[in-house]
Amino acid sequence: MPTSTPKAPPPLTADSALFLDFDGTLVALAETPEAIEVPSGLVGLLTDLHDWLGGAVAIVSGRQIDMLDRFLAPLRLPSGGEHGVQRRDAQGKMREQPPPDLTLVLDVANRLAGEYPDLLVERKHAAVALHYRRAPQLESLCHRVLADLVSPWPGLELLHGKSVFEVKPAGVNKGVAIAAFMQEAPFAGRTPFFAGDDTTDETGFAAVQPMGGVAIKVGSGETLARHHLESPKAVFEWLASVLPASQQGQGNQQ
Ligand SMILES: O=P(O)(O)OC[C@H]1O[C@H](O[C@H]2O[C@H](CO)[C@@H](O)[C@H](O)[C@H]2O)[C@H](O)[C@@H](O)[C@@H]1O
């Protein structure tokens, strides 16, 4: 992947479409999925951006959409969940791939977590995540076990995110989800911006840049993205700085 000098993103304009990853981009990473803290003012800021951009703001995450809704309540944005396996459009219509049979994957992951209590299993609608953040020395064991399990099944894919391996349906990713949003109102015809921090966000960067859009890598690491922001705090500050003064404050009244 190219690693040219990263530069700050250009400002959003009223005809932009904004796609945002969640963990590591809008909220700082934490030891467990439930331990994250949603920064004060984030929900209000996203609400104002959503109003300013005519509804063209979506979260595109590895998390389940109902979990995103819980963290961002009362806001319910258009969302891609589980790396695009689920998608809720701007009208609120939900599209979900049928879950594959993950019984064996779940059994194996739970057995491993029984043996190593610092591992954490997250069951999603159509995926199973095995988190090893509290036991980094178990990375290669987790990888080996899940890779062996998944390799005979072409319908399943093993994703490697930050301190996590996820088994999910193959063939869908964040790039596919963003491309689907870009076919629909109010996203269609706008310039897409996508910010994300993880390797699993690279498909999103690969989708928006050929559309003339802006890909923003948050934090360090090799990336296709041509723009960069240092941290979730820098993402917050950038979003707050590009929002016109006349649009500020509406969401904070909630
Ligand atoms: O696509 P994202 O919105 O970045 O979601 C990716 C995964 O995020 C969550 O796990 C990650 O964040 C946790 C909380 O900071 C952290 O403990 C874990 O190590 C990270 O991998 C979430 O639990 C996963 O389901 C998402 O796929």
From TrEMBL:
Give the pathway.
Glycan biosynthesis; trehalose biosynthesis
Give cofactor(s), names only.
Mg(2+)
Keyword Kinase part of the UniProt annotation: no
| This enzyme's EC code(s) | 3.1.3.12
Enzyme superclass (EC)? hydrolase
Give the UniProt keywords, A-Z.
Answer: Hydrolase, Magnesium, Metal-binding
Q: Which reaction does it catalyse?
A: alpha,alpha-trehalose 6-phosphate + H2O = alpha,alpha-trehalose + phosphate
Gene3D superfamilies registered for this protein in UniProt? HAD superfamily/HAD-like, Trehalose-6-phosphate phosphatase related protein, domain 2
**GO molecular function annotations of the record:** trehalose-phosphatase activity
Q: Where is this region: Disordered?
A: 81-100
Q: Which PANTHER family match?
A: TREHALOSE 6-PHOSPHATE PHOSPHATASE
Name the family: Belongs to the trehalose phosphatase family.
Task: Describe its function.
Answer: Removes the phosphate from trehalose 6-phosphate to produce free trehalose.
User: Could you identify this protein by its name?
Assistant: Trehalose 6-phosphate phosphatase
Q: Which organism is it from?
A: Variovorax dokdonensis
Corresponding gene? otsB
